[in-house]
Design the sequence.
């Protein structure tokens, strides 16, 4: 079989992904197997793959591919989110470029443009995920605005309204003046900015005195309805019960007292503008203050802005500041560093604004979701996010679920009169008409008399039922699929949406299925550049994921992403890690070429060195399988990958293949060759979840007679049981002997194949019997001579309590030898201190697997024996 000299991802990745899809390897249907289900965090329908998506979806694919190999019914449900604000902003921008204003066309016309945009851009990111190797069940691809999901969302709204949990209220919200909609806290980006702090003078009524107010928003003085002081502030006791005059507006407003005012901050006097500040609104509610809203929804001043009406808020700020100076009401300005909230989608500065919106009462409905996480029924990984979750949930506020947009799930409320309560909530127009006729006591009402609420629901209101709606569990709560796949197993997402999405999905799960939606939540870190900055297009520090795949191959990129990605910690991305991943593919490829290049001779009896090598590597595989199960159970995927990396690169390629490789141009025996192929297959099955493409290609090249449909993707996770674990420590000792001899050889400039004499002083020479021939063969030494006393004048090294002496044919520098031993003693003492520290840690001893604890105890015993031998050698010197 002719195998190319170099591994070429471009020639292989597309070929195998197409093959997997054609054979429907990723599809899932309910059956008798144990299900393993993941629902994808749906990316924005208009989005393209970024580094965060790469990390998140690689982790999901690793988990789903491993489950598939373990014989579970692996179901990874893909889909996209309609992303109301993001999509509408893109469509608005597109229309603007075409000379069309959103407000000049009807809702229906706008939605035609939005659907056209979605149809054109909606599948891009899913196609890019295929380039990454994502093994989703593409037959299940869903969209939060498709018919099933749309009807599910509306059904939930109606149900919660009928339960009294959804209501309309006049509340303070985050307002985006450019998009003319409220936005969620998650969609507000806080930026540090340099502003001016303006000190304004308010005249006290019937007095020559003034009070000084500091503000960064002088335009809002036109909405002031009080000045507030702390009741305990001695400086202002004489002002209690008095009034001041608002500059420019010339309105009299009261001086009120409230403990909210910090006497040490600013001037100690606070202007209260209930319509334009959350805290001011709360003060206003406590003191029954008038509410004066000075802004239109687009951020321009309304009639309360007096002669500044119609001006943009920032233009008005400059003009009002100028007038305040002219009338002597501006005492000074100073530079001021502060934080300003901006809209994630439009970049507009967020305006706190009172608005009538729809809300979901959260306190009662959240209680089961809080308990589920606190009791670890839903496990957060890493657990450090548990306290954050608890804080959010214990202080949960009612959820503003309405948005002033066209694109989204239109709120199923219909108005039929002028009264505040003249509306009904229903799943469709016909039901709404019946309810309206009953509520109005007017059977003559017609559909044209009803007007549907123009707002749409917050995008999160569709995705909070995602694990239910993807299996049609809202419309049909007892169908076969929801009962089989729900609850799902693992959710992989980002910590920043722990409350906005994760918590709400848990809430919905208990509300509509009385069950958690998933068992584990793996929280990824943020992908950052070498300088620690979050990757973003605006900073220009984010590489194009597709270009990375083109350059390093999907397997290389996946390895690069995972090697530096512990759960919950930020990922300091370095492209060199992708290069390391690509080099790993090449290393595996070269190992394949070596094995497949062996000539087989059935007449050759398997050498003892090969027999022992095969026994050792089988035990090593068994050991690693135990380690991997532990690492996967704790979601230590980065550690699991590194474990496999070392197993393949070091143990298999660097040691095992050297152990069994015939001498130059000699054939190999049949048994060793076939067992090596088995080992290689098992290694490819283990690495497959991390590197699906190269493992599939090699799987097919390992056996010429393999059936085409016999793919590694649908093979089985290896099952290797330990038979003789003691051989592992024997092998490690042998490897150290070989490495130490090679070091001495290199240090003295000796030829690689020049046979050296080695003497050994050991407690038990029999302990080396299994690997003695391998040591002699790989270290290129004459048969080891066992001695009872130290050999002076030779270069030496110590392993555990055993001492080895190498005759390099050169004089030994006694002083240098003494320094070397003293250095080894110092290192060994430090090593022992570290091991003792671990074993004295009750948390480690009680929580770590027994095998891990035993390994540390063995390290301690070996280290102590080595220290004793080193000290003896130093004494003899």
Sequence:
């Amino acid at each position: 079989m002719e195998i190319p000299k170099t591994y070429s991802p471009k020639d292989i990745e597309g070929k195998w992904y197409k093959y997997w899809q054609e054979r429907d390897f990723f599809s899932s249907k309910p059956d008798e197997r144990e299900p393993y289900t993941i629902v994808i965090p749906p990316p924005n329908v208009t989005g393209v793959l970024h580094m965060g998506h790469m990390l998140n979806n690689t982790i999901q694919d690793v988990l789903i591919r491993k489950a598939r190999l373990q014989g579970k019914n692996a179901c990874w449900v893909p889909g996209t989110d309609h992303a109301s604000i993001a999509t509408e902003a893109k469509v608005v921008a597109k229309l603007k470029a075409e000379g069309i204003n959103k407000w000049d066309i009807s809702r229906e016309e706008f939605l035609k443009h939005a659907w056209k945009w979605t149809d054109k851009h909606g599948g891009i990111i899913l196609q890019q995920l295929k380039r990454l190797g994502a093994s989703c069940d593409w037959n299940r691809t869903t969209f939060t605005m498709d018919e099933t999901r749309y009807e599910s969302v509306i059904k939930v709204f109606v149900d919660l309204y009928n339960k009294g949990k959804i209501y309309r209220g006049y509340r303070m919200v985050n307002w985006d003046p450019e998009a003319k909609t409220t936005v969620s806290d998650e969609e507000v980006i806080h930026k540090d900015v340099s502003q001016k702090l303006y000190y304004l003078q308010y005249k006290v009524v019937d007095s020559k005195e003034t009070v000084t107010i500091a503000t960064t928003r002088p335009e809002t003085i036109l909405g002031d309805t009080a000045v507030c002081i702390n009741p305990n502030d001695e400086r202002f006791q004489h002002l209690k019960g008095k009034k001041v005059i608002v500059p420019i507006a010339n309105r009299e407003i009261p001086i009120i007292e409230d403990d909210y005012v910090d006497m040490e901050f600013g001037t100690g006097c606070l202007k209260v503008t209930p319509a334009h500040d959350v805290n001011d609104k709360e003060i206003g509610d406590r003191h029954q203050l008038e509410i004066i809203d000075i802004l239109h929804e687009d951020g321009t001043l309304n009639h309360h802005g007096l002669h500044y009406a119609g001006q943009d808020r920032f233009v008005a700020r400059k003009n009002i500041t100028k007038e305040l100076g002219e009338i002597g009401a501006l005492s000074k300005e100073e530079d001021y560093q502060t934080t300003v909230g901006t809209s994630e989608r439009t970049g507009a500065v967020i305006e706190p604004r009172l608005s009538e919106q729809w809300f979901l009462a959260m306190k009662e409905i959240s209680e089961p979701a809080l308990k589920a996480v606190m009791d670890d029924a839903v496990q957060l990984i890493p657990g450090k996010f548990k306290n954050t979750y608890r804080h959010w949930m214990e202080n949960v506020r009612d959820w503003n679920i309405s948005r002033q947009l066209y694109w989204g799930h239109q709120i199923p409320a219909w108005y039929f009169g002028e009264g505040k309560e003249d509306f009904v909530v229903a799943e469709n127009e016909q039901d709404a008409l019946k309810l309206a006729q009953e509520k109005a006591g007017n059977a003559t009402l017609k559909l044209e008399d009803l007007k549907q609420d123009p707002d749409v629901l917050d995008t999160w209101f569709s995705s909070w039922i995602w694990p239910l709606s993807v299996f049609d569990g809202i419309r049909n709560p007892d169908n076969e699929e929801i009962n089989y796949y729900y609850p799902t197993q693992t959710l992989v997402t980002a910590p920043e949406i722990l409350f906005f999405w994760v918590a709400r999905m848990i809430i919905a799960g208990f509300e509509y299925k009385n069950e958690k939606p998933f068992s584990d939540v793996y929280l990824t870190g943020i992908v950052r550049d070498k300088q620690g900055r979050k990757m973003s297009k605006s900073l220009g520090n984010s590489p194009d994921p597709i270009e990375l795949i083109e350059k390093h191959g999907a397997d290389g990129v996946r390895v690069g992403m995972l090697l530096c990605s512990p759960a919950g910690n930020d990922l300091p991305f370095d492209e060199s890690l992708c290069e390391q991943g690509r080099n790993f593919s090449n290393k595996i490829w070269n190992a394949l070429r070596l094995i497949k290049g062996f000539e087989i001779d059935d007449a050759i009896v398997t050498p003892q060195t090969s027999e022992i090598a095969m026994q050792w590597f089988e035990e090593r595989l068994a050991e690693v399988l135990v380690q991997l199960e532990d690492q996967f159970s704790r979601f230590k995927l980065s550690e699991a990958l590194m474990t496999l990396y070392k197993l393949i690169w070091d143990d298999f390629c660097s040691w095992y293949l050297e152990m069994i490789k015939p001498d130059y141009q000699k054939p190999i025996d049949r048994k060793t060759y076939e067992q090596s192929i088995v080992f290689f297959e098992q290694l490819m099955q283990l690495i497959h979840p991390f590197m699906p493409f190269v493992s599939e290609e090699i799987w097919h090249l390992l056996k010429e007679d393999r059936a085409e449909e016999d793919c590694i993707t649908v093979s089985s996770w290896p099952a290797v049981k330990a038979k003789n674990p003691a051989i592992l420590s024997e092998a490690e000792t042998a490897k150290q002997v070989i490495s130490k001899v090679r070091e001495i050889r290199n240090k003295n400039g000796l030829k690689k194949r020049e046979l050296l004499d080695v003497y050994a002083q050991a407690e038990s020479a029999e302990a080396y019997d299994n690997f003695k021939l391998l040591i002699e063969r790989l270290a290129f030494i004459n048969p080891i001579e066992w001695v009872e006393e130290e050999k002076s004048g030779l270069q030496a090294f110590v392993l555990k309590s055993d001492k080895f002496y190498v005759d390099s044919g050169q004089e030994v520098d006694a002083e240098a030898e003494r320094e070397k031993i003293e250095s080894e003693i110092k290192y060994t003492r430090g090593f022992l201190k570290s091991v003792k520290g671990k074993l004295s840690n009750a948390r480690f001893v009680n929580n770590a697997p027994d095998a891990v604890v035993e390994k540390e105890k063995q390290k301690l015993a070996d280290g102590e024996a080595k220290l004793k031998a080193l000290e003896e050698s130093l004494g003899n010197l």
Summary: The longest helix spans residues 850-876. The mean pLDDT is 92. The radius of gyration is 36 Å.
